[in-house]
Amino acid sequence: MVGSIRPILWLLLGAVAFVLLIACVNVSNLLLARSTTRTREFAIRTALGASRLRLLRQSLTASTLLALVGGALGLMGRGLG
To answer: Cα separation of 63 and 16, whole Å?
Structure first.
């Protein structure tokens, strides 16, 4: 059905996948930098008696909330465009 433009479509798919990979790496880098700046907070919470599980749960909750808000904003932006 696509005929002679099949190689161009594969190239376009590869470019889109590469841009998506760069975006994912960027987001993971931002989350890593954010968690690195929160080491003092984690140290204080540990000193006050928080377990590792509780700290992990807090970190995962914050990351999930950020991901959901970002996804919702992305979907809203897609609907507006």
So the answer is: 25
